[in-house]
Amino acid sequence: MLNYDVVVVGCGPAGSAAALRAAKAGKKVLAIERGPEPGSKNVSGAMIRKDYVSSVFGDGLPFEREVQRIKLSLYNGDSPVDIEFSPENLVTTGRLKFDKWLSSVAENAGAMVISKTTGLELKWENGTAKSLVTDRGEVTADAFVLAEGVNSLLSMKSGIKKDFTPDTAVQAVKEVYAVKKEDINSMFNLPDESKGLAWRFVMTDPLIAGFLYTYKDSVAVGIGSPIKELVSRKMRPEKVLDDFLDKTGLAKKFEGYSLREYSAKVIPEGGFPSMNPGKGNVYLCGDALGLVDPLTFDGISPAIASGTLAGDAAASGLSQDIYYYNLVKDPEISKIVKERPLEGRMLGTDAASGYINMLSSALNSWASGDLLGIGKIISSNFRNVMPDLIEFMTKMR
Q: CA-to-CA distance for 232 and 265, rounded, in angstroms?
């Protein structure tokens, strides 16, 4: 039976960050990935902060386009209200290339990365995990990092976390279309192939948060909707995506272009710190901790942050109390934690309708020069709605 200092399950951003940190600490590290290669199982739009990723993994990030514009479309019925702003230091990247690069950095630091390997069970003795059973054999280790994503079977089997319910989860669906570089530039009014667009959508009936990201020669588009709403309306996610593409006019834009990828993912609304980040010598990170924002789909930065801390904890044998404290104090993770109450309010169907209707009315009044109308709208909704809207708009940047 092979023995390692640290075994990492999952080679997404969180797992690769954990493997990298543990390897840099001089530990013998094994990282396993159940997919055919890192990045093959994801549904992220992959807009990331270049400087943050580089601060952990170094130079060489394989990004596709620099995000020149972020566009936000709020739909009140069939008519959207559009807002645009210029971000700084954001890039788009394909998750397959991105995740493969992250794992290669961990490999270069000394970690062993093995794909097509599934973790089946942790074996425990007196509250300590002693070995991991995989479909290719059993390995022992001093510590284990579980970066297995939302479907955290090992974490649930070990009693570290509970399964999510439809009342506390969002169903996300993504499509990627192959589009020529020059066609992307023309479609979205981009000056050249180095510049990109990130487009966010919010609409009701049903409640949807959507995204679109431009890559070099492809475009990713997707939506997320609370599962409880899909169930109550008896709607399938793929039908919601088709309706979304029709309503936004994107279906016509992609006519004649081939569908390169289709994927789906469930995103729990809750997560750390309402759940334990580990048990004994086992540390959870990334999506396994629920560190993804269902409003903006941002999970990569907190995944890397938590993976870094998990790798440090595993290499040093930190207690769960100290690991919990380090997670809470991390800026990337504390931001997600502080946003939990906003998520709960914004993801309520009735509340979301009120927010969108109010903002649409206010912006329409502004466009028509009705300043008095804006004042009335804001004053009548300020106490209950405006603080959430301001916070939501800040998050979208």
A: 19
Measure Cα distances from 396 to 8, 236, 387 in Å. 32, 27, 15
Contacts of 2 (CB under 8 A, 6+ apart): 30, 137, 139, 140
In the prediction, which pLDDT does 374 show? 43
Q: What is the pLDDT averaged over residues 120-139?
A: 96
Backbone phi and psi for residue 328, each to the nearest 5 degrees, phi listed first: -60, -35
DSSP state of 134: E
Contact 3, 293 (CB under 8 A): no
Distance in angstroms (rounded) separating the CA atoms of residues 362 and 74 = 12
Could you give the domains of the chain? 2-46+95-164+270-340 (3.50.50.60), 167-268 (no CATH), 348-396 (no CATH)
Q: Rg of the chain's alpha carbons, rounded to an integer? A: 22
CB burial of residue 234 (10 Å; 0-12, 13-18, 19+): exposed
Look at residue 370 in the predicted model and tell me its pLDDT. 43
Q: Which residues pair with 223 in a beta bridge?
A: 173, 210
- Sole residue written with tokens 């995740």: 99
Helix H or strand E encompassing 123: strand 119-125
Alpha helices by DSSP H, listed for the chain, are 13-24, 50-57, 95-108, 153-157, 181-187, 227-233, 237-248, 250-253, 300-316, 320-329, 331-346, 349-367, 371-381, 386-396
Confidence of residue 171 (pLDDT cuts 50, 70, 90): confident
199, 211 contact by CB (below 8 A):
yes
The mean pLDDT value of the chain amounts to 85
Please report the pLDDT score of residue 76 as a whole number: 73
With beta carbons less than 8 A apart as the criterion, state whether 263 and 223 touch: no
pLDDT at residue 346 in the model: 57
Which helix H or strand E contains 335, and what residues bound it?
A: helix 331-346
